[in-house]
Specification:
This protein is α/β, with parallel strands linked by helices and 503 residues long. The protein has ten helices and 19 strands. It has a single domain, classed as FAD/NAD(P)-binding domain. The strands form four sheets. Strands 1, 2, 6, 7, 8, 9 and 19 form a seven-stranded mixed sheet that branches. Strands 5, 10, 11, 12, 13, 16 and 17 form a seven-stranded antiparallel sheet that branches. The site of dihydroflavine-adenine dinucleotide has 40 residues, from helix 1, strand 4, strand 7, helix 8 and helix 10.
Length: 503
Amino acid sequence: EAAPYVPALVVGTGYGAAVTALRLGAAGIRTTMIEMGQLWNTPGKDGKVFCSTLKPDRRSMWFSSRTKAPLDTFLWLDVVNRDLGRPYAGVLDRIDFPNMGVYVGRGVGGGSLVNGGMAPTPQRAYFEKMLPTVDADAMYKRYFPLARRMLGVNTIDPRYLEQTPVYKYARVSRRHAHQAGFRTSVVPNVYDFNYLRREENKQAPRSALAGEVIYGNNHGKQSLDKTYLADALGTGNVTIRTLTRVTTIRQQGKGYLVGLEQIDVWGKVVRRSEISCGSLFLGAGSIGTTELLLRARETGTLPDLPTAIGNGWGTNGNVMTARANHLWDPTGSLQSTIPTLAIDNWNDPKHPAFAEIAPLPVGLETWASLYLAITVNPERGRFTYNHTTDRADLHWSASQSTPSLRSAQALFDKINNAIGTTYRRDLFAGNRAFAADFCYHPLGGALLGKATDNYGRVRNHPGLYVTDSSLIPGSLGVNPFVTITALAERNIAHVLATDLKRR
Ligand code: FDA
């Protein structure tokens, strides 16, 4: 029996995939998207689609018997993580490699389901340094504004920011940064700040004020299922298959034959099948896309894939840290999970850092200031294919995180000195003040201009494209999804105009 055929197949439903599917569908090209996670639209027994960080249940994690929150403990107590019972197809995954845990979203919308919604655009000079072959004029005049508009990016009303108790934590950290001589900036977001105001006033169900974020937001956040993916389905040419993982890719005529594995919510494989396509777009995320390409090259189904695949991976310099405030500097017991301010020390010649001021929304006063810093880290990791496990292995040594740690420490030592405060050591295992052994911003693995041409076409493989964060070489200086979206817009516009004229 011949495998069914679709003109265009898109792997994943995150940013790169969603942009690509919308533009293909709008151009009249029948497109199927394959997503290994669930469609998150059905409320559980509690009436909610997603669970909160305060009361996580099986919906929280992708096939894990325990939550794996970024903080290990609170006041050194094992109160952060919970047992979950039978492993389930939850929304947040943490892929653990030696020395590095990588968080990713699972479900229709990919990372947009679990992320903090922060939507900054990188500094142009740094963007040009990281992606020198991309026409920056086209990006900054056309594709960044397009991405921001499509994603529903908005900025907090400054008067609200100054008076609301839910951003007291942000104002306290901002004051401390200013006292130490640093600048801060307001960071745009895709969480609707008008909704936030209404939930604060008890006019709407709480989400950002109910501890919801890394296991999903039930309200307020413009995740991709509400933006790009809704529009893609609206073209009438796009369909999405969920709980289905792409496993293999091989050449078939002028197109590709793709192996699929469908599971139930408990992880049992219920069906194996194949689908063939004319064009294949990989949007499975930095790790997902890189793994698919490495597997195809190393198992010989696409033996001529470029040697550059697997290279150039980075953490965007992610480091998490927390400071212990004085008793007269409370940060508030009701905190919005959606960050809105950052310390911008990016132009520091020695220790550039862009540190988002993060909440610690535990529902009681903590006197803690939490931060996720993005630093410059020139170190790059590398993936290889492991024949025994059939997975990609990441090679990242603990010492490769040192440049990130140094930059973050330079910044926060200065703040602690100016304020007379210290680090919190109760949050990360081993009494550490800093954690650079996990990241939220995996970037690279199939770099633009190296593994692909300048528009994401995989070298020597007509009809095979990379659309996602694996194109970006390890660092952007700010949170990445606006850039992933804008780059995907730019690439698919070019590919549609040159490769995919309507058949
Ligand atoms: P993305 O990872 O979004 O999507 C890939 C999809 O493909 C997933 O749905 C996955 O399940 C699916 N998939 C993978 N392999 C597959 C296979 N073999 N078959 C089928 N499906 C497969 N960024 C930002 O800009 N601002 C922020 O505030 C934050 N905050 C943040 C918090 C947390 C907790 C996380 C985990 C991440 C962030 N990020 C962020 C990062 C941001 O979410 C991330 O950079 C993007 O989601 C990456 O987009 P991609 O399109 O590359 O893939």
